[in-house]
């Protein structure tokens, strides 16, 4: 029996089984087996080349401060949306599968550059290769956030939102979730030991028993498991497998000008959702205009603008350094690393003005978390402080070698010009 057949068999058994205290342990075991088989299938398909992001237009270099992937069924308005956001010419028409490759564009907003990817429409079964689904989903795994575009006219009957969520869930993409606060530490011997700092009501009457059984499904027989929050079987499996991607996701219900006001109100109340119309420019303005969609994208990406200043000079308010909670964080350390590794190496302290500071300026260390539009001045170590560093000799030699190499290259270029 193949992997797909085993998956279907387990899904059928889960559908037949009633959910109650007596079946909780059995259902937990089935969920663990199902997740393991789905992961095996995903790895197998990725290894065969079908799950990679290669192919025309799909190998898109990162550009800007963040990346957003547009996901949706064919003909929901993704290409028109990209054109509205970025002025990029992505072919749009009133028929399905207009976009056959990945079209990138850049949204300039609040001093940041956000890369927006218009991906081909996907259909049910995309996670298993239907259409170009695997290529689309591979790009989505590498995005900082996902914007799911839905057709308001079709959503009620076709349940496109639910289908897309299931397709992404199947390949390990978790939408609007954070990694569970669970630690699994393998040991060389002994049984599974489970402990929790909070009551576990979602793991049945005997949490340790079900945790032990789930670990055995993944050939782990000796381990310490510590849960610092209430978890489900699915969350524990995600921690064990370890290849899950946690993505912020905004749902945009497009074409609301074609449905009733009651339907618009219902869609707008859905979690993590907003309504709009690309055609009528409702909540979606021109590329250089502010609008609700751009504001929501900024919020979901967790972007933070930091203005830098030198000693004795006013802050540079024209070109902020844009940090992201999703990529490297928004601490002083992230700011230094974003500007220069040398700046991080020679860091002494930072002076911070803004809402993150208790008083202005506040002297802060590398771990200080910055707020949007803070002003930061980095103060480097003095020569004497640098000399006290145990690696000072190595670093000084590296700097001297680098400087000598630059001088030699400049001398060669000058000689070539003289010969020419």
Automatic annotation (TrEMBL):
Keyword GTP-binding: yes
Pfam family, any one: MMR_HSR1
Tree of life domain: Eukaryota
All copies of domain TGS, residue ranges: 302-380
Every OBG-type G domain range: 66-296
Gene Ontology MF term list: GTP binding; GTPase activity
Record keywords, A-Z: GTP-binding, Nucleotide-binding
InterPro entries: Beta-grasp_dom_sf, DRG, G_OBG, GTP-bd, GTP-binding_2, GTP1-OBG_CS, P-loop_NTPase, Small_GTP-bd
NCBIfam families, alphabetized: small_GTP (TIGR00231)
Protein name: OBG-type G domain-containing protein
Organism the protein comes from: Cylindrotheca closterium
